[in-house]
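Box 4.2: Ligand-aware structure prediction
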Amino acid sequence: MTHESRCIAVFDSGLGGLTVVHALRRRLPAEDLVYFGDTARVPYGTKSPETVLRFAREDCDFLLRFNPKLLVVACNTASAAALPELESSVPVPIVGVVKPGAAAAARRAGGRRIAVIATEATVNSNAYKRAIRELGCDAPVVQRACPLFVPCVEEGRDASDAIVQALAREYLQPLIPLAPAVMILGCTHYPLLRDAIAAVMGPKVALVDSGEETARGVEELLRQQALLARAETVGSLTCYVSDNPQRLREVGQRFLCEPIRDVTCVSPEEFHAGESAHV
Ligand code: DGL
């Protein structure tokens, strides 16, 4: 069997994509990962589709300098707004989080109602709903933006926090009479608030973590294309941010459940400089 030692490159609007990195590291511990968090421009979830597409293209251009074998768009908002365009312009395989999350939800729902919670931009794009329909699933879909969850997580609040719990009630209680069977956590940050979300929705609602599903899909794709790293190697994690590396080290640990040592801040000049000026 052949192996491929090039890295997997992952980007998100900020720190939240580390939940996807966490899932990738658990599933694929031999893989070298390069992560870019666009912390200078987060959040993407309140921005227009045009702006998100531009940012996503720039994030990909930056990561292509590392010669990855695969690109992962960990950000739901960027996956929703930009994946089709990126697929046709990026010269390596590229995976987003929307399709894997939608597929897992469709499988589990078995025709019953699916709820999608996400940023405003993701909800407005209808990307999850479209992906569910493209799978031939005609289950009813209800969507709800939960915009204050992201700043709560960025601020260090977790599922045990009273404000998070109040927000979860405010956002999610209106969905209870609709009795969804499945709820897609359609934003990088929401898995960290899983317990607060589950407490409102109750045990009958299956929560789908798009990041976890994406990691599963990445493993499958690498296996199919004989691109897996040699199993006996220990994969590295190298992180880049566009602002405040210290915050990634501190808050990022919570997303990743392991210390983050290797973090570099990329200046706007370096970020926009093109291939020759970097690495
Ligand atoms: N990463 C974004 C997402 O998954 C959440 C944060 C943001 O709004 O940029 O949709």
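In the box above, the bound molecule is D-glutamic acid. The radius of gyration is 18 Å.
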